[in-house]
Amino acid sequence: EVHVAESGGGLVQAGGSLRLSCAASGSSFDDYAIAWFRQAPGKEREGVSCITPSDGTTYYADSVKGRFTISSDNAKNTVYLQIDSLKPEDTAVYYCAAAQWAVWALYNKAGAPLEAEQYDYWGQGTQVTVGS
């Protein structure tokens, strides 16, 4: 069983950048797909990006393409989410989650790599607040 923990959130001015980290432990990193979700106050949880560390495959929600970059450091069992050109609407709690790769592959084949129900392991979240 894998455990994931987020860090790196904070208060940033609009136009700034932030890098979130998701550290995984307890199981082989390569056996999972790792995703970032966010939930803003009063809004539904939104999947923003995912990566399969085993081969570096990435996926982004349309709403964040061009500003968000996901990457992994397999030696550190850590996935990063670089967020550039921050906007006030990026304010949310950002969650890291892990899905078993075989399950993720089925959802990905069906065109749903960010479907939340496939992600069994979740972190506690890190708050990102963007000031205008």
Describe the structure.
The chain has 132 residues and is mainly beta. It is built from 1 helix and 11 strands; from the N terminus they run E-E-E-E-E-E-E-E-E-H-E-E. It has one helix at residues 101-109, and strands at residues 3-7, 10-13, 18-25, 32-39, 46-52, 57-60, 68-73, 78-83, 92-100, 121-122, 126-131. The strands form 2 sheets. Strands 2, 4, 5, 6, 9, 10 and 11 form a 7-stranded mixed sheet that branches. A hairpin with a 4-residue loop joins strand 5 (46-52) and strand 6 (57-60). The chain is globular and about 40 Å long. The model has no long low-confidence stretch (mean pLDDT 96).
Descriptive labels:
single chain, 132 residues, mainly beta, four-stranded antiparallel sheet, 1 helix, 7% helix, globular
Q: Summary?
A:
The protein is 7% helix and 49% strand. The chain has one helix at 101-109, and strands at residues 3-7, 10-13, 18-25, 32-39, 46-52, 57-60, 68-73, 78-83, 92-100, 121-122, 126-131.
Number of strands: 11
As an assembly, this protein is single chain
Can you tell me the overall shape? globular
As a percent range, the share of helical residues equals under 10%
Straight-line distance between termini:
40 Å
Helix and strand succession? EEEEEEEEEHEE
In terms of structural class, how would the helical and strand content be classed?
mainly beta
Discrete helix count = 1
Average pLDDT level: 96
Largest sheet: 7 strands, mixed
Question: How much β-strand is present in the residues?
Answer: over 45%
- Which residues form runs of ≥5 with pLDDT under 50? none
Instruction: Tell me the Rg in angstroms.
Output: 14 Å
